[in-house]
Automatic annotation (TrEMBL):
Alphabetical list of Pfam families matching this protein: DAGK_cat, YegS_C
Membrane-spanning intervals of the chain: none
Protein name: DAGKc domain-containing protein
Keyword tRNA-binding annotated: no
Coiled coil spans: none
Gene3D superfamilies: 2.60.200.40, Probable inorganic polyphosphate/atp-NAD kinase, domain 1 (3.40.50.10330)
Entry annotated with the keyword Nucleotide-binding: yes
GO BP: phospholipid biosynthetic process
UniProt entry keywords in alphabetical sequence: ATP-binding, Kinase, Nucleotide-binding, Transferase
SUPFAM superfamilies linked: NAD kinase/diacylglycerol kinase-like (SSF111331)
Top-level taxon in the UniProt lineage: Bacteria
Amino acid sequence: MSDTPQSRRFLIIINPLASGLAQIYRQRLTERLQQASEDFDIWYTTDNDQANQRHLQQCTTDYSDWVVIGGDGTLNLAVNALAGTDVIMGLLPCGSGNDFARNLYRKGDDPIEVVLGEHSSRIDLGLCNDRYFVNVLGLGFDGEIVAGMYDHQPRTLRRWRYLLAALVKLLGYQEQKVALTSTERSKNEPTFLVAFANGRYFGGGMQIAPKAELSDGLLDCCWIGKASLLRKFYYLWRVFSGTHLNAAAVEYWQDNTFNIDTPNLPIEGDGEFFGTSPARICCCVNALRLKVPAREA
């Protein structure tokens, strides 16, 4: 557990396309900060990811605390600026999926109290080539879906468009051979989906990595091999409850570093398009300082 400094300055990062809850969070948060005479600035993200990243990189030494009001994509933007720094990040989830927040908050938690509180903890991050992810990285079926949505449609209603795209893609999807190596094992065969998880959830609540922990120094790899269409539906249904690990086509293991040697496979991280393989994927231990509920500190 770490305590916040006596004198704090907050940067509030808001995705303007987030749900209506974002404005409620903004109002509650700014009222509390004003009551406490805490200094803060508000910054809204744009649709230019490179410009967003440049701006945030310039803010890493100006603030003690960042608060992200948005979903997993906005969170990923902030994480890539804060990795390896001592700035404390808090999350007010109001995106389409909020998968990372499922690792952090439980029913009854008030995220406002958490981001204003005194409890923080160091957590791990994943790194894919030169880009960080805080939750889950995927390739294969999942990577192709996100790649198909990238820069083609607005981000509004993204969760429902993702589910529709997944259904359409599933009907005609052909597994591709993936060459993967890690300390624990090697694979070189067709796969439906492979995920590298720091957190447990992706795809709007699918528990792809039920054994994942945010601070264990490892990434959890979930490999789902070639299967019939009916089996694919069955496995995806089981992933929602995290009961897929004993399925015949599923392999699951933990490691610190993975290499994908197959070229031109689309990769998604935290629901964002990361580019294509080949890729080196590794766990960066204690890379982010995160505001957490008191029980987690």
